[in-house]
Protein: DJ-1/PfpI domain-containing protein
Organism: Streptococcus criceti HS-6
Amino acid sequence: MCEAGMMKTVYMYVQDTMADWEHGYLMQALSLQVMLKKPKVSFKTVGRTKAPIRTASGITLVPDLSLDDIDVASTAALVLIGGETWLDKEQAAILNLAAELLQEGFLVAAICGATLGLADRGALNTRFHTSNASFYPEMSPHYTGQIYYKDDVAVCDGNLIIASSAGSLLWAKLIVEKLDLYANKTIEAWFDYFSTGDVAAYARLMSSFSE
């Protein structure tokens, strides 16, 4: 169990074929905690086992933890990245955990192919969501949530944050907001900078930590 006052953890699941570019903005946003006097969350990668995985771009990653090592009570968020294997039987354990966490009120964030995995577990049938396209979740016969589909790059419905493969920046912003990591002015300046490249936004971002 997570002891009172213990820092909670953002767990990111990693698997073979993981689209390793989709979490870049989220990693950058989490790394900004170095500007705080005290970080609010820690970060760990999680694999089905601790065996190395090979990402879609050919990078080999060794997970920090296996699924069996996760302390559910310590979870700040479970992050699921796109890939080509989300309908494979080997992903049943992580998808079952995601469904359990959603039911218990924990934050779950999924992007791209991971949205198909959640659709296959029925997790999108009664929640507002998006995906790579409206027909994408329909690749699963268990998906019946068409009336909840939104034509946006990222959608937040309670403790579920979903994005298309084009929505990684907004998806990261929604996650950071839900985790309450930074002041609103910091988050807005961060989003403005990475969405526009405006150096004035970068200056606002840096100064927001000392105001």
